[in-house]
Structures are given as structure tokens and as C-alpha cells.
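Lab notebook: predicted structure, single chain.

Context: the supervisor wants predicted structures on file for every construct in the current expression panel, including those that have not yet been purified. This is the next one on the list. No modifications to the sequence; it matches the entry in the shared construct table.
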Amino acid sequence: MARLSEEEITRGLGSLEGWRREGDTIEKDFEQGDFQGSVDFVNRLAPVADEMNHHPDLSVTWSTVKVSITTHSEGGLTANDFELARKLGSLG
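Prediction complete. Output recorded below exactly as produced.
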């Protein structure tokens, strides 16, 4: 899958609520209320990522899960990253 242009990335971010760009990734913090909520969110997220065979980097704190998405094999952002972000947004 090809890397997206700057214009495509900007357009993609405009269609996603709460996501931001950090270099070659898109990121979002998902507030879950407490540690168990964070763990439960990761458990809901995992099957979605597995189904796409596209796995984000995760950082779990007590009540927040930070999700970072990029396509490592392409060295940047692709359409798959934005598709995964849209799917994860519905889990919020």
C-alpha cells in the first residue's frame, strides 16, 4: 500500500475526531475512566486490529490508552492507518 500525500493526510485527519498527526503517525488518547476501563478498551481494540492485520502501538496509563498508528513497512501513513483509526473511533 502506498504512502499518502500530505494533502491526503490532511483530508484524512479532517474526517477523524480527536486524532492528531505526530510525524509519520496519527495518534489519539482514549480516556477510559480507570485502569480496568483501559484494559477493557485494549481487549476490544485487539480483534479489530487483528482482523485488519494492522497493529497500532499502544501506551496504557491508569485511565488512558494512547493509540499510535502508522504503516511501518511503508515508512509512513497509508489508507490502512485511517481505516483502522475510523474503526477504533467507534470503540471509544
